[in-house]
Amino acid sequence: MLKTPEWGMMIVLYFFFGGIAGGAYFTAAIADNVGGRRAARVALVGYLLSLPLVALCGLLLIADLGVPSRFLNMMRMLKFWDPMSLGAWAVGVFGLFSFVSSVMCFGPFEHLATLRRRIGLVGMLFGFFLASYTGVLLSATAQPFWSEARLMGALFLASGASTGMAAVSLILALTGDGPGHGLARVKHADRYSMIIELVMLALFLALLGSAAKPIVSGHFAPLFWGGLVALGLVVPLVLDFVGHGRKALGAVSAVLVLMGGFILRYVMVMSIQS
Questions:
Q1: Which residues, at least 6 apart from 73, have a Cβ–Cβ distance to it below 8 Å?
Q2: Distance CA 252, CA 245 (A)
Q3: What is the pLDDT of residues 58-70, one digit of tens each?
Q4: What is the spatial distance between Cα 153 and Cα 118, in angstroms, rounded to a whole number?
Q5: pTM for the complete prediction?
């Protein structure tokens, strides 16, 4: 009998915050490179949001390992065949990019905008890796459900993009965005990211077939269909279409997307262990 890994809420939060951090940095890098001055605040918010979240990911990973020295040991040597080693390095390298990009938004570094934009494009790749690798980590296990979920990495990447954009748009809505040009663009992009996530989720379930029973039926089914699909994806899409330009509805939509992103990871991690 295969031993089920004892992963709890700290791993779920690690997956969740890692996805948001990667998505927020991606949003910032794109805004920084192609958005112009109107998107300057989007870039600032995205970079600054990714930094504490990736730091939190490192703390959660260390706490889950139990002994801080185990994390340091994984950082001493990169083992390409070890998903945990790759994860530790992803957190460390992406954290460095987040720190540099955030610092370069202020003070004497602000005039180095061209360099910051180039750094953002490279750091974005590590953000993608952090957002998607957690799904790959699950599918690399020998557990029946996880091992057959070959699209989980792509699904987590799509979810990371949508939750990262949702988090940035929520902050912009709550703190003000001047004329609102940046907020409108992020909300428009997040709408497409949610559609992509819905498509990826449908493909994910289709390829799993009967192996998807742990999440689509039984104990976790109401949370999956009601929390993730309905409230976390469909309702936010409807709110974005009918409430175009209304910041209050946009904020509600962003909160629901974040909730859906958490539920996705919670269901994927916990369903096989129940």
A1: none
A2: 13
A3: 888 788 766 666 6
A4: 26
A5: 0.90
The answer to whether 120 touches 29, Cβ cutoff 8 Å, is yes
Q: Specify the 3-state DSSP secondary structure of 37.
A: helix
pLDDT the model gives residue 249: 87
User: If we measure between CA atoms, which residue out of 232, 226, 234 comes closest to residue 254?
Assistant: 232
The pair phi, psi for residue 249, each rounded to 5°, is: -70, -35
In a 13 Å sphere around the CA of 152, the CA atoms on its Cβ side amount to 23
HSE (CB half, 13 Å, CA atoms) of 75? 13
For 219-241, what is each residue's pLDDT tens digit?
Answer: 889 999 999 999 999 999 999 88
Both structure tokens of 71: 């994390």
Write the DSSP string, 146-192: HHH-TTHHHHHHHHHHHHHHHHHHHHHHHH--TTSHHHHHHHHHHHH
Residues 6+ away with beta carbon under 8 Å from 6: 273
Q: Which domains does the chain have, with CATH numbers?
A: 9-273 (1.20.1630.10)
Give the separation between CA 22 and CA 160, rounded to whole angstroms: 6
Contact 269, 12 (CB under 8 A): yes
pLDDT in tens, 212-221: 888 888 788 9
- Total length of the chain: 274
User: What does residue 78 show for φ and ψ, rounded to 5 degrees?
Assistant: -80, 120
Q: Compute and round to an integer the Cα radius of gyration of the chain.
A: 18
Nearest to 268, CA basis, from 128, 151, 182, 93:
151
The pLDDT > 90 percentage for the chain reads 45
